[in-house]
Amino acid sequence: MLSVNLLRRSPETIRRSLRRRGEDEGVVAELAAMDARRREALSELEELRSRRNEASREIGALMKSGAQEEADARKEAVRALGERAGALEDEARALEASFREMMLTLPNVVADAVPDGPDETGNVVVREEGARRAYDFPLRPHWELAESLGITDFERGAKVSGRMFYALGETGARLQRALVQWMIDLHRERHGYAERGVPFLVLGETMRNSGNLPKFADALYRDAEEDLWLIPTAEVPLTSLHADEILPPGSLPIKYVAHTPCFRRERAAAGSQARGLKRLHQFEKVEMYQFTAPEDSPAALDELVEHASDVARGLDLPFRILQLCSGDLSFPSAMSYDVEIWTPASAEWLEVSSCSNCADFQARRANIRHRREQGARPELVHTLNGSGLALPRLIIALLETCQQPDGSVPLPDALVPYMGGQRTLEPA
Question: Taking phi first (over 0 means left), then psi (-120 to 50 degrees means alpha), and beta for anything else, what does residue 76 get?
């Protein structure tokens, strides 16, 4: 959520950011007018309360002096003031609710260092790392390899839950578990994250804190009766672990890692782009999350990108880093980088991680603050998140990159201990 003070002091900053995102800037004028009317109503209400209190004191004095008739006349005026005050209170509450809801629809302000661009075509390749392998045999797409190796069973997954769901066979379940365990160990032991387990169903307020509501309600799964929402990523509950808290001096940075399922109402059209593991309603992901002091968040973003990149390096998979342009930034992000892994059979780069600095946008929504020293004024923290990594697309890249002519897939050395010593996935 953006600061109300920013709206009042520098509305052009918000308008410029919306233009850079390719969004309508007219909402800024509407918000400014609503804020002005809200402040007018509150000011008038305060004045009416003051007049009513003063009149009440005068009535008391008149009654003591025996001027009952004049006191009764004044009571009529006080009642009128009370009725007007009541109407203004209702108006102020309604204006406050409308103003807050509209403020919640504003995306984060784009950082100055973000390149301008209308959409993903404006993203900038920062660097590419790792050599792409050469093959002297026809490559098979991941969905064929996954079925032949006993990793996925799309037919039975669809029978259970419908299109864009899948079941894992024994090999797939073991491979996914091995990848998750290795990534969590990597982030805990080498990168300094503390592991957390979080709920997969969260309150609507928790979704608002992370920036998913109200804007993305139609992309989420919900139990309306309980007002519980299935998480689209572990970022959502991790954001709210410290909601309404003041973190003590010396506690920052806080670095969490969590493994969760993710639930999303994907709306991809049927066809080759939706085949296999690319777009799913449910998948698993390891998520990294950081709470930092404001001045430390730029360096923390670079760190997140390196930590996500370490996963690709550890599996010997070619990858590249993209800086997202203004038109491709996510709603709560001020600056983001994507990690994409090359998939040779599909001949495309697949995003496996998006690392974002949300500055104080989520912290303001969730009321997460810290003190620099004992007794100091509380300040909003900065929050950052990054996939470390998403499982389905990581499996795609692993299968397509490491495949052999006979359909087998040798495993990277890092995974062998987590697969009980197994070094190669063999066709069933």
Answer: alpha
Whole-angstrom distance, CA of residue 416 vs CA of residue 406: 20
Strands 167-168 and 152-153 turn out to be antiparallel
Q: What is the pLDDT of residue 242?
A: 98
Q: Render pLDDT for 282-307 as a digit per residue (tens, 0 to 9).
A: 999 999 999 999 999 999 999 999 99
Give dist(CA 409, CA 42) in Å, integer: 68
Specify the DSSP class assigned to residue 296.
G
Q: Which two tokens mark 131?
A: 């050599």
Cα distance between residue 11 and residue 35, in whole Å = 12
Q: Are strands 245-247 and 368-370 parallel, antiparallel or unpaired?
A: parallel
* pLDDT reading at 112 higher than 80: yes
- Report the C-alpha gap between 193 and 70 in whole angstroms: 73
CB 184 within 8 A of CB 257: yes
The first and second tokens of residue 297, run together, are: 């968040």
Bigger pLDDT: 16 or 224? 16
Question: Between 11-21 and 26-64, two packed helices, what is the crossing angle to 10 degrees?
Answer: 150
Average pLDDT over residues 232-243: 98
Nearest partner of 24 among 106, 116, 102, 101, judged by Cα: 106
Q: How far apart are CA 127 and CA 102, in angstroms?
A: 39
Name the more confident of 40 and 415.
Answer: 415
The encoded tokens of residue 215 equal: 């804007």
Instruction: Say which amino acid occupies 268.
Output: A
pTM of the model: 0.91
Helix axes 68-103, 26-64, angle to 10 degrees: 160
Nearest Cα neighbor of 21 from 351, 330, 301, 353 is 330
| Cα dihedral 329/224/168/385 (nearest 10) | 30
Please give the positions annotated as active site: 264, 279, 351, 354, 393
Q: Burial letters for 332-350: b for 16+ Cβ neighbours within 10 Å, e otherwise?
A: bbbbbbbbbbbbbbbeebb
Backbone angles phi, psi at 154, to 5 degrees: -75, -30
pLDDT at 3: 96
Lowest mean pLDDT, pick from 39-48, 261-270, 378-387 = 261-270
What is d(CA 357, CA 355) in angstroms, rounded to the nearest whole number? 7
The pLDDT of residue 269 = 44
pLDDT over threshold 60, residue 273: no
d(CA 341, CA 309): 10
Q: How many residues does the chain have?
A: 428
